[in-house]
Amino acid sequence: GEHDLGADGIVRRMAKRSFDLLFALPSLLLTAPLLLAIAILVKLDSPGPVLYAPSMIGRGGRPFRIYRFRTMHPALPEHSSPEDRLTRVGRFLRNYSLDHLPTLFNILLGDLAVVGPRPMEPEFVDLDDPAWQRYFEVRPGLFNYAVLKLGRTFGPSNAGNLPRKLALELEYIDRRSFRFDAQLLIRFARSHVASRGNIKARGEPDGPEK
To answer: Taking the complete model, does pTM exceed 0.85, yes or no?
Structure first.
């Protein structure tokens, strides 16, 4: 995209990547005891792997595995409801968004940025669509503009508001800058606290831009 052409675009991308690493490395060091404790609890609570690593679409339309703590019983049939499949530990982790902590490793690997469009499940993406091509011109993020704006109305990808989410993330791409990312992180921190740890479950939809 025009945003990334030329020397200025390269410098911006390098600065963003440096910020991502400066965010992810200390965060992993600080949360290492918590990551270990959660991994042990997941393993003790139910049989199966500690991590759940679904395929997502990232920058350039390339698939990657996103790392999360497993929150569901792997042995129950796929047609069981998500509520029925949740483990006891998994329910707690989801309630406070702790299942996403391993996603910090995706930032280190370069799959994700700290702030960016939400990584998308392949079944909801049409890479022949110019809008989705624009969406994946940038690295997806751990924190997403659409989640902040929609709060608890965000819903899963099959909830029917995918065009609204797409429009919001394209708005982010058009507006993105180091300053805008910093402003969004502050707003995310406030919303995370106000929603008691889960913006998608309890977050208030964000108001119009000022």
So the answer is: yes
